[in-house]
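Issue: ligand-bound run for flavin mononucleotide - logging full I/O for the record.

Environment: standard queue, default settings, no custom constraints.

Inputs:
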Amino acid sequence: MKVLTVYYTMHGHTLRMAEAVLEGVGSVDGVSPVLRRVAEFDAVNKIIDNDEVARRIREEQKETPVCSLDDLSEADGILFGTPTRYGNMTAQMKQLFDSTASLWQKGALEGKPAGVFTSTATTHGGQETTLISMMIPLLHLGMILSGVPYSVPEMLHTEARGGTPYGATTMSGPDGALQPTQEDLAIARSLGRRVAELALKLRG
Ligand SMILES: Cc1cc2nc3c(=O)[nH]c(=O)nc-3n(C[C@H](O)[C@H](O)[C@H](O)COP(=O)(O)O)c2cc1C
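Outputs:
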């Protein structure tokens, strides 16, 4: 059984969260974790050429395959991660969703579990809305959404960090200087684990 984690990142925060999600998936016996990235736009690649951090992150991911429609249809469960863009998913992630019409027609993703994760710059920069923006196409595709329950110990807090019942989150800070906290990563691992366990149960 395969559970896919597919993410987009520009400055690496969502990648760190994806790695934690992947670890959570891999902690479930009988489930193989698969990591894929979302394709970058040519126009954004030109911007990245002049951004030292983004260039390093692009280099770091160059061996990670770009997610294909076959990757999506072969997966028994999928986790999607993207930074926010004005409270929404990135256009790069939306491009992946918008390429799934043939899967929608076949019902290829119906009944499979899904989870979502994101990174924002600021505390109130749109974590929940970004997660929900990914959930809308996932519901159209017939996927079964999983969030993060409050029984996960790191969830019940009032600190300046991530953790929403809609999915795993982190904050990069206005200048990108923050990194996911240990708690953010623990919640991301728990989401990956939960979707993998659901995939096993749903497949029977
Ligand atoms: C066009 C654009 C819009 C953004 N909109 C928001 C926003 O609404 N709220 C916010 O907190 N951060 C916003 N950001 C900041 C990114 O979400 C932040 O840099 C990101 O979480 C870093 O993720 P990454 O390191 O995985 O690329 C925006 C960034 C860009 C380029």
